[in-house]
Amino acid sequence: MTGDPSKFSSLKLKNEGYVTYGDNNKGRILGHGNIGNSSSQTLIENVLLVDGLKHNLLSISQISDKGFKIEFDNTCCLICDKKTRNQIHWKKN
């Protein structure tokens, strides 16, 4: 999930209800789409765009189940497609 529409390589805007966070607050889902470099075919699919979400939220379990390798350090997150070796790199805000 993200609140930043600029992160999407494709985005379908549609009122899709609400997501409930761990503290029981809710965020309105504005749409969903794919994140990553579409030319390199490294995509994380079905990512939600949530109104007002200030931080990107990632399910490590869902990403690894799709064949991605995830690495974190104190400055960034690197997601690598094991099949294609293509990468998505995010710097910490």
Automatic annotation (TrEMBL):
A Pfam family assignment: Pol_BBD
InterPro entries membership: PolX-like_BBD
Domain of life: Eukaryota
Residue ranges of every copy of the Retrovirus-related Pol polyprotein from transposon TNT 1-94-like beta-barrel domain listed in the record: 1-68
This protein's name: Retrovirus-related Pol polyprotein from transposon TNT 1-94-like beta-barrel domain-containing protein
Organism listed in the record: Cajanus cajan (Pigeon pea)
